[in-house]
Amino acid sequence: MCKHLPWEADGSNAEVKRNVNCDLYEKKGKGEDYRGKVFTTKSGLTCQQWWSKWTPSPTNGLELNYCRNPDGDRIGPWCYTTDPERRYESCNIPQCKDGTIMT
Q1: Residue 102, SS3?
Q2: Is residue 53 within 8 Å of residue 42, measured between CB atoms?
Q3: CATH fold label, 1-103
Q4: Measured between alpha carbons, how far is 29 from 24 in angstroms, rounded to an integer?
């Protein structure tokens, strides 16, 4: 289910929870603030660790190999892939539409 959460405005005390019943999704701009745990691209390629190209910090979310949008790219969250034939690719991140609850 997608719904607006009371802490979504600042995100500082938000914690991502995942279980068999639900995932939390957030839609904000081009996904610059996305901090979910998707680590595969639209075509199913595995993402590689960010530290090979970017410097991780507690605020940029680049510690592991999750899809992110650190450069504000219009394609939304993306990652460098582990496939030498494809350097990077966008990720298939589900988004909530404003004011819509989806089950």
Answers
A1: coil
A2: no
A3: Plasminogen Kringle 4 (2.40.20)
A4: 17
